[in-house]
Amino acid sequence: MFELDTLLRNNIRNLVPYSSARDEFKGSSGIFLDANENSMGAPLNNGMDRLNRYPDPLQAGLKKKISEIKGVPVGNIFLGNGSDEAIDILYRAFCNPGKDNVILAPPTYGMYEVSARVNDVEVREVPLTTDFQLDLEGIARSLSSLEGDTEGRTKLIFLCSPNNPTGNSLDRKDIEVILNNFNGVVVVDEAYINFSKQKSFVYELNEYPNLVILQTFSKAWGMAGLRIGMAFASEEIIAVMNKIKPPYNINEASQHLALKALENMEQVNSWIKAIVAERENLASQLGAMKMVKRIFPSDANFLLVKTEDAGNLYQYLVSKGIVVRDRSKITGCEGCLRITVGTQEENKKLMAVLNSYK
Ligand SMILES: *Cc1c(COP(=O)(O)O)cnc(C)c1O
Question: Whole-prediction pTM value?
């Protein structure tokens, strides 16, 4: 049985959240003398007329729009200053520092581990199999029981699908096995879901009270600079996350610009198609190169490429002004570079430079 109340840290269960001035008064017009803002205005002239005011702490307008696009009720949506903020908040909500632990399945997104270490949470690594799938037996062995003792428990499991840096999707059945059998919180990071044919888990929120899904505006949606990450979960989990977050975690400019950008969904969708087509194109060109030993199947906007001499190749590319990600020292990714799919023009240049190597 999943019991949110017993999973939470005591200090979080008992936390009385900061009540901001804008929490107390919900109206949008009036004379605001409650928050010590500058009533004169902001020294900017850029079409946004509210920058002298604190932003909406719960981002109602932006969430309403996301709710329409995703088909998920507003009460099941959390917005963070990037997904990275949501990851950190999940650790702070559930994991007692120096006691509880998290299960990670490397090679995977580095922030899960960094954020665990910042929060002094023990990391239990259960590496992906050689075809980058979950080792269910290994995970079952590494779990510390949630029964009985309230200390030193496995509170969180992070699953990334499609996975960064490997690019593949995790087997949906395996994720379901974990959701059905683990009584802690299962975080499914879908940062790259828009590039994949896989179905998102957001439609299963009602099935799994222990499910948290992460998505982001930073990748397919083309807004990495705005720093907006989304978490989808039960209303109860979302309420806990909102209680922990800093009151004004998404600034007014980001809320305003994201809302405007979401009117251009057609643009986003056509870019996604173009990126997927470029990905396949790039994969076949790279595959024809002698120094490329392997290209891993990708459901994302990047390719993990195993090459001869990855470290030197990386340096060579840098010397030609092309920056890729060197993952060659990461266990499971030996000899690999992670290459983001660029524009057609950029990919052409990449291929030209690669063909001039040695
Ligand atoms: C890029 C990425 C994110 C996005 O993080 P933001 O803080 O929202 O920019 C999240 N998860 C994974 C696996 C990523 O690769």
Answer: 0.96
